[in-house]
Amino acid sequence: MPTDSIWSFPADSGYVEGQDPTGFAVHASDGAIGRVDRQAGHFGMRHLVVDTGVWVFGRSALVPVGVVRRVDPAARTVTLGCTRAEVKAAPRFRTDSETMDRAYLAAVGDYYHRLTAGEAPRS
């Protein structure tokens, strides 16, 4: 998978262009992680900001849309192709300004790209 494809919904995900997944429940491959707070795409790096609630002590996570495996508008769910632990281990999302920080987005994209390529992420 090319690195830039981590920022695009997979063609077979069920995502329809223009669809707003805000409020959809987000599930990793091994369980629920939260709800979509918003979708953004600064610098062509489309991602979801996921409110993880109490699961990760009230913090949010930033997930590139290329990690999405399925969007089900009827059930209002987004299913990711990674585990809860992998989301938790991603570069930490601290402030909204990071959605405008190319270096931070690149680090997140690199982390998830290695996951989808079957490589162990570097710390």
Automatic annotation (TrEMBL):
CC annotations in GO: plasma membrane light-harvesting complex
Residue ranges the record marks as coiled coil: none
GO biological process, one term: photosynthesis, light reaction
InterPro entries: Bac_photo_RC_H_C, PRC_barrel-like_sf
Name of protein: PRC-barrel domain containing protein
Species, as recorded: Streptomyces tagetis
